[in-house]
TrEMBL record, chain A:
Name of the featured protein: Dihydrolipoamide acetyltransferase component of pyruvate dehydrogenase complex
Taxonomic lineage of the native organism: Eukaryota, Metazoa, Ecdysozoa, Arthropoda, Hexapoda
Keyword Transit peptide: yes
Domain Peripheral subunit-binding (PSBD): start-end pairs: 170-207
Stated family: Belongs to the 2-oxoacid dehydrogenase family.
UniProtKB/TrEMBL annotation, chain B:
InterPro entries cross-referenced by the UniProt entry: DH_E1, PDH_E1_Alpha_Subunit, Pyrv_DH_E1_asu_subgrp-y, THDP-binding
Protein name in UniProt: Pyruvate dehydrogenase E1 component subunit alpha
Organism of this sequence: Cloeon dipterum
Protein EC: 1.2.4.1
Cofactors required: thiamine diphosphate
Taxonomic lineage from the root: Eukaryota, Metazoa, Ecdysozoa, Arthropoda, Hexapoda
NCBIfam families in the record: PDH_E1_alph_y (TIGR03182)
Family annotation (SUPFAM superfamilies): Thiamin diphosphate-binding fold (THDP-binding)
The UniProt record lists the keyword Transit peptide: yes
Length: 486, 398
């Protein structure tokens, strides 16, 4: 009888005060009293330390190094370990005091999910060696708070449905809108996005496959009408909102085109050029009637040349005549270049490339023509050597063959000029006779070249194209200019 | 068949029923009160300051100890919940500053008011919200004191005019609350709290002027924790003697790590204000252990050693504990029992704050007004209004 009584009282004591007031030793004894006779009852329940989120965007982290060892006493504010977050290495401070009893995830453990059990701590004076290690399953991170929450959303499912405007479960607003338009629920559509997210394309696919039609949107009364008309339940078809059918392009799918390395380089260089070089522009119309005549005559003899070949030759000659135009910008200043190396823009499937007609001023039109054809062909096959398209002192870009009248181009640094060549077209000359005219527009680096210098060059170029025999004149190389006193 | 241990337990259990007598300690009798000397107060434009000799009874001491500890535990739990990503958004912890709030609260009359900035989890608890009300507010669940809609900076209770996110803006509001007391002719005061960083806000000087001009019973409390948001007070303020910065408003400097000193200074301040002499500035010199907010590790503008040094030598809880034990107000075991009790309560609240549900959607537009004049609340589309509801109980209506 006595034992029954004490047993009951003892249990009461244990239940009521055991978790809080008893020291571990006493806890152990009371347990024994109740017959939980586990071998030595090594059974200190530790407090769990979980992988913390130490940056707002951290989902997992790497434990770089534990600064405390098992058995070390911990004071509030001590650093337990250094953790590499998605941003930086951050010290993990602990606010509790006690003894670090067990490290469950060691140094250098990579990509440990936030919430994963990483260590156990016991109170001061407790037997840290006897800490109870939780079963493996409990070491896994708990479901994310967002998933763990939903007691509330379950409580009000009807309301939840209506929140079409919000983002949930990684769905974007476009996905929401489409689901609503076609009266679909997200479970109707197979999702292919990362982490099982539903994509806009998934819905459009299904819409195409099944030939779904958007559902008429719900009638929304205009604000003015809402009060007066609400009781009358206005005829939906007459409200303006009901007429406006949502537009969904038929068969539209969305494909992301990833940039090739070449396009990436182009993008980088052009952005850099346009945003750091002060571009200035000048355009001039050139009479190319004579060039066309000459070309025709050559063709009748079986010598094939293009207008562009003449433009290259004319530019090369003009660059010799106006050598300050044949320069590059070295970051501080304009540096004149000895040779006239003309880069010619060639379109390929992967992007624009500018192979170089080297020493163009020293080449005849036929040779230029052959060189360009060879370079262009190999450019299209991707077989150019580096030195065949890197360098150059001036670039020509010609869109005449597409009928473009005029355009402006972006400088190809470190060059200082690029000439955009338009199409030849018939205009009325000053003498009332038709003239074949072609516009060229020069983009130049205003740091290296003055407006006046650019204008001189352009008018010189126009003169050469008007009278191709001037190409015979050539120019004087800069090295010789001083000597002969020009 | 009764084992010696069990018998021991039974006897002590009986003893426990007799009073709050300590569990598992000998039946030694304790001092019923004890006196201490505080660090000297510094005075500005005051002939006389608070007494430096303070007395505390055993019951008071245990109460303050438990209050400070509860605040510390709530903050620790908040920090952990934040690192588990269960609390999101803003979250500013008060660890290290507990003696300020508990000291002021100990001196406040039941109807005295307080308003503070965003570091208010501890104040919310002191003003009557249980730990669950604070923690569930932080986790955004319905047991929160603002039903989960306010979060860290927006908690309120009777006579507690809440957290305020705009640095310094609570101070003019506090003067307004104090002015209301004066206007009504009751003898309540308002404590308007701000930080050392906020002390440089222009609006504080504007209300120093108005409060003094009209002798409003407002106690301006500058909680100087040494740092603003990422910078030390020394680097941010031309004068760091915050208790003098009211110029024509008298001031007191008090050791904000000593609960009894803060209580004494607060008593003095209340007395001063209610005797019609007008406002007072009180600077509490304290320290913040954590970073400014959860996104600030708090170690880029001060060293970890500095923090640990304060924790070891000036911690408000540890030093008060030592005072209690050394004067025999209570035994170490007795305090340990309080530790365990507090831990259990906060752990329990934490568990509940994690598993509690959120309010349903319909409640979102509820309780915007205490007495709504219109039932409809404007929605994203103005012609699809939401319905206002009254659910919670309104506080501080007049
Ligand atoms: C008007 C305004 N400016 C800036 C901020 C950003 N801010 C929030 S807290 C803070 C620092 C305040 O420091 P202090 O007053 O010392 O208070 P403590 O954080 O130390 O408690 C700043 C600059 C703000 N919330 N409001
Ligand atoms: Mg501060």
């Amino acid at each position: 009888m006595a034992s029954a009584l004490t047993g009951r009282l003892g249990r009461q004591v244990a239940n009521k005060f055991l978790p809080t007031l008893l020291t571990p030793k006493l806890r152990l004894r009371v347990k024994l009293e109740h017959g939980f006779r586990q071998s030595a009852a090594l059974f200190v329940v530790g407090s769990e330390i979980k992988m913390p989120s130490l940056s707002p965007t951290m989902a997992e982290g790497t434990i770089v190094k534990w600064l405390k060892n098992e058995g070390d006493p911990i004071a509030a504010g001590d650093v337990l370990c250094d953790i590499q977050t998605d941003k930086a290495i951050v010290s993990f401070e602990i606010e509790e005091e006690g003894i670090l009893a067990k490290i469950l995830v060691g140094n250098d453990a990579k990509d440990v999910k936030v919430g994963t059990l990483i260590a156990l701590m016991v109170a001061e004076g407790e037997d840290w060696k006897g800490v109870e290690i939780p079963a493996a399953g409990s070491a896994a991170p708990p479901s994310s708070p967002a998933e763990a929450k939903p007691a509330a959303s379950q409580a009000a499912p009807a309301v939840e449905k209506k929140t079409a405007g919000g983002h949930s479960g990684g769905q974007g607003p476009a996905v929401h809108r489409l689901l609503e338009q076609f009266g679909l629920s997200s479970s109707d559509v197979p999702a292919t996005g990362p982490k099982g997210n539903l994509l806009k394309g998934d819905i459009l696919n299904l819409v195409n496959q099944k030939g779904l039609k958007p559902k008429a949107p719900q009638t929304v009364l205009p604000p003015a009408a809402s009060k007066a008309a609400a009781p009358a339940a206005a005829a939906p078809s007459k409200t303006p909102a009901a007429k406006a059918k949502p537009q969904v392009a038929k068969g539209s799918k969305f494909i992301d085109v990833e940039l090739t390395n070449m396009r990436k380089t182009i993008a980088k260089r052009l952005s850099q050029s346009k945003s750091t070089i002060p571009h200035s522009y000048g355009g001039i119309d050139c009479d190319i009637s004579e060039v066309l005549k000459l070309r025709k005559a050559l063709k009748s003899e079986g010598i094939a040349t293009s207008v562009n070949d003449f433009v290259i030759k004319a530019v090369a000659t003009a660059l010799r005549q106006y050598p300050h135009m044949n320069c590059i910008w070295d970051g501080q200043q304009a540096v004149p270049v000895g040779d006239v190396d003309v880069s010619v823009a060639v379109a390929t499937d992967t992007g624009l490339i500018t192979p170089i007609v080297k020493k163009a001023s020293e080449k005849g039109v036929q040779e230029i023509s052959a060189v360009v054809r060879d370079l262009a062909a190999r450019a299209k096959q991707g077989k150019l050597q580096l030195n065949e398209f890197q360098g150059g002192s001036f670039t020509i870009s010609n869109l005449g063959m597409f009928g473009i009248n005029y355009f402006s181009a972006i400088i190809n640094p470190p060059q200082c000029s690029i000439l955009a060549v338009g199409t030849g077209r018939l205009i009325l000359g000053s003498d009332g006779k038709p003239v074949q005219s072609m516009n060229v527009t020069l983009s130049y680096d205003r740091r290296a070249i003055d407006e006046e210098q650019a204008a001189e060059f352009l008018s010189g170029l126009r003169d050469i194209l008007k009278d191709p025999s001037r190409m015979l004149l050539g120019g004087v190389p800069p090295s010789m200019r001083a000597r002969v006193g020009i | 068949m009764m084992s010696p241990t069990a018998r021991l337990v039974v006897r002590r259990l009986n003893q426990r029923n007799q009073a709050l007598a300590p569990f598992f300690t000998s039946t030694k009798s304790f001092a019923t009160e004890a006196s201490f000397e505080t660090r000297p107060f510094k005075l500005h434009k005051l002939e006389e300051g608070p007494k430096t000799s303070v007395t505390v009874t055993r019951d008071e001491a245990l109460k303050y100890y438990k209050q400070m500890l509860t605040i510390r535990r709530i903050e620790t739990a908040s920090g952990n919940l934040y690192k588990e990503k269960i609390i999101r958004g803003f979250c500013h912890l008060y660890s290290g500053q507990e003696a300020c709030a508990v000291g002021m609260k100990a001196a406040m009359k039941p109807a005295d008011a307080i308003i503070s900035a965003y570091r208010i989890h501890g104040w919310t608890y002191l003003m009557g919200v249980p730990p669950l009300g604070v923690l569930a507010e932080l986790t955004g669940r319905k047991s929160g004191c603002a039903r989960g809609k306010g979060g860290s900076m927006h908690m309120y209770a009777p006579h507690f005019f809440g957290g305020n996110g705009i640095v310094g803006a609570q101070v003019p509001l506090g003067v307004g609350v104090a002015f209301a007391s004066k206007y009504r002719g009751d003898d309540n005061v308002c404590f308007a709290l701000y930080g050392d960083g906020a002390a440089n806000q222009g609006q504080i000087f504007e209300v120093y002027n108005m409060a003094k001009l009209w002798n409003v019973p407002c106690i301006f409390v500058c909680e100087n924790n040494g740092y603003g948001m990422g910078t030390s007070a020394e680097r941010a303020a031309a004068s760091t003697t915050y208790y003098t910065r009211g110029d024509y408003v008298p001031g007191i400097w008090v050791d904000g790590m000593d609960i009894l000193a803060v209580r004494e200074a607060s008593r003095f301040a209340i007395e001063y204000c209610t005797s019609g002499k007008g406002p007072l500035v009180m600077e509490t010199a304290t320290y913040r252990y954590s970073g400014h907010s959860m996104s600030d590790p708090g170690t880029s503008y001060r060293t970890r050693d500095e923090i640990q040094e304060v924790r070891q030598n000036r911690d408000p809880i540890a030093s008060f504990k030592e005072k209690i034990i050394s004067t025999d107000l209570a035994s170490a075991d007795e305090l340990k029992a309080i530790d365990a009790e507090v831990k259990k309560e906060v752990d329990e609240a934490t568990r509940k704050a994690k598993s509690d549900s959120e309010i349903p959607m319909e409640e979102l537009p509820a309780d915007i007004y205490a007495a709504p004049l219109e039932e409809e609340v404007r929605n994203v589309a103005p012609w699809e209004p939401l319905r206002h509801k009254r659910i919670g109980s309104a506080v501080n209506l007049n």
